[in-house]
Design the sequence.
């Protein structure tokens, strides 16, 4: 029984990660970002490292996703993402921050 619970929890975690990756794809985030490698914007794993342990990271990044920003990762600005709701931005940011 204990093993079954572990398997179920693992599948749920994998499903959440895949769902967030699918959300990133559907919102065109992967045009400028990837999980592991810098594209135009930073790799999501680099974002997770930079903001690890910062208490206000989630809110700060949600606002950057929604409103855009510049200067944090170089000269290329991140445009506002008007097609992303606040709830979607929060889901994406939580996923990014969970990456190791």
Sequence:
């Amino acid at each position: 029984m204990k093993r079954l619970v572990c398997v179920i929890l693992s599948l749920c975690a994998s499903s959440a990660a895949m769902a967030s990756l699918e959300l990133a794809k559907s919102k065109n985030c992967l045009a400028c970002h990837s999980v592991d490698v810098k594209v135009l914007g930073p790799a999501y794993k680099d974002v997770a490292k930079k903001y690890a342990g910062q208490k206000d990271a989630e809110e700060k990044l949600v606002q950057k996703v929604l409103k855009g920003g510049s200067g944090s990762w170089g000269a290329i600005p991140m445009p506002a993402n008007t097609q992303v709701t606040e709830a979607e931005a929060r889901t994406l940011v939580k996923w990014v921050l969970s990456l190791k």
Summary: The chain has four helices and no strands.
